[in-house]
Amino acid sequence: MGFVNHFYFYLWDPDWGGAFWKTNAYAPWPVWIWLNGHTWAQRHCDRLGIGYTPLDNGFRDCEDPAALQRICDRLGSGAVKSFLWRWQKLLPSPFTRDDVRAGYVYELAFRQFEGSDTRVFDRPPAGRSFFEQLIRDHLDVGRPEKVSLIFDRRISSRTPGTWRTQVITKGVDPQISCYYKSSRIKQYFKEHRASRTETVSCDTAILASLGG
Asked: Same domain, yes or no, for 14 and 92?
């Protein structure tokens, strides 16, 4: 078995903030990039002078929620492509200018997509009580009939996968997760003040069914 050297470039981008670029030394020289939409939105708030309090991968509060929503609505594939081309010009690459002009360019595709819905509570103790009740009401969320509803897929005896609800109580911060093939939905109480639902998927068809 041969081993391929991988190279990581940890970047600070003017639009995205912290990011990384991964590639290897073997043809066809693929590239993986990691970006965070929350930091993209925070960077644009900073530019416009919009005050906010950050929440890990999110916003705890914002002085102009409508403006923040407009910023988030602008985030799309164009911003990702701009990042790719901006850094391809700056980082080492096996492709020469003539190669690029001849059409040897990268085409982006999602390897993994993560989206979240975060509800921040004005009174964190009430939020904690809500989340604990949420877990009690959804202990069966991993059953096939519930997974079928969540992911909009027909589940039969031939559908591969393990149907389970996973409740983790690390310390005093419980979380609940359910799974479907390469996708997962996780709910937990973020930083003791926000209920967060995270969806992770490597299947764009699943994202379409979830409204992504």
From this structure: yes
